[in-house]
Amino acid sequence: YQRRVRGRKNLTMVWSGVRTALILSAVCALCGASSRLVNLTGSSAHERGLSMGTQLAPQISKLYQHKLSIYSEIPGAVELWHNLSEALTPAVVQWAPVVNGETVGAGGAEGVSMAVLRLLAVEYELLMALGDEALADKCTGIASEGRSAGVVAGQNNDEDPAGWLGGALDVVLKMDGDTRSPAALMYTHPGWPAYMGINAAGLVVLWQYIDDGARNFESGLPTCVLIRELLAQVSVKKALGLLREVAVAVPNNFVLVDAERVVDVEVSPGQMTVVEVEGPGDLVHTNHVLFDQTMMDHDIGLNASKTTRIRFDAARAMVRAQRSRGVDVSSIQRMLQQAPVFRNGTHGTDHHTLASIVFKPADKSMHIRFKSDPYMQFREYTL
Fold first, then answer.
1. Is 116 exposed, middle or buried (0-12, 13-18, 19+ CB in 10 A)?
2. Does the pTM of the predicted model rise above 0.90?
């Protein structure tokens, strides 16, 4: 069914109210966050989930309590959160067997509640329902298929730091594989299934906010659950097949790449457009609809976002300037670390970039700079 977002002002005021507590909390959290890689071992989804719950129980609890304190200040928000979890969990069970297995496994760890994990899985949908204004400026993605450098892709994860303890608890999960899903590297917040990542088949998933106002809060698959399930696929073709098969809860843009393909997917409840870069070429996506003309006619993001066109034009200009020399990992790193794409408080930007991430499918590699890392200092992880 259709629902229009609202309530932006109230949520923004609550975010602002936690900034002072955020500073102290983030500093404390950073004391144990120098190593961001979490190895999740096991020959099944259940075992990987148990490994995650065992290692990340304190961080999951800390972020959940932080979120709960925020939503408790918004009338009706906690009840809505529980209602969304109850309504959308059947879709997780039906369409996301990998995520469901990992969730059940994590829920068996000491100090981790499966009910809490189900809530965290739909927290993005809650933000969409409440109308968090920061979402409209969430993330810039860049992908390139070149003759010399091959396929590379990357993006910034832009979110209000007040909602995430400054990104101090953010991690990269290194997942073992099994017969159902390849091994994977995934950036996320502890307790959320996945944000962006790469798997051992070389499949990369990037994610940007878009919005045409459509919602399926009755039977849609939650966003972070969908991303993790996409990363359980063995090719861009299989990932597209999953997107065509499932019902999604809210609109999103996904950039799917592997060592040979660059594909953009604008998807909404009841609507989907797929565009592929054929041969050498580039793709930039921010937070307004570019390809689906039906979604374009109802584009909330275009009007709600303060910076989507600014970041789009800046990223396109940087890609264009680099094209003749070849777009590679290091050049996308520089693009993601330059304002206004990089939101670090300079050149009129806010401080919302929590991580900059670049993937090289041929090498099965992830290069990531967390918010607290020195400028242009990327950590490299490989499968």
1. buried
2. yes
Dihedral class, residue 272 (left if φ above 0, else alpha if ψ from -120 to 50, else beta)? beta
Q: DSSP letter at 154?
A: E
Q: What is the Cα 161 distance to its own chain's centre?
A: 14
Residues 6+ away with beta carbon under 8 Å from 260: 145, 151
Q: How far is CA 317 from CA 142, 289, 353, 376, in A?
A: 12, 19, 20, 20
Three-state SS for 222? coil
Is residue 195 within 8 A of residue 99, CB to CB? The reply is no
CB 202 within 8 A of CB 237: no
Contact 372, 30 (CB under 8 A): yes
Structure tokens at 322: 């680099």
Residues 196, 245 contacting (CB under 8 angstroms): no
Torsional class of 111: left (φ above 0), alpha (ψ -120 to 50), beta (otherwise):
left
List, run by run, the mean pLDDT of 10-residue segments along the chain (383 residues).
40 51 43 77 97 98 98 97 98 98 97 97 96 86 88 97 96 96 98 98 98 97 98 97 98 96 96 94 97 96 92 98 94 98 93 97 97 97 97
Residue carrying structure tokens 């200009």: 317
Rounded-to-10 torsion of CA 237, 41, 166, 332: -40
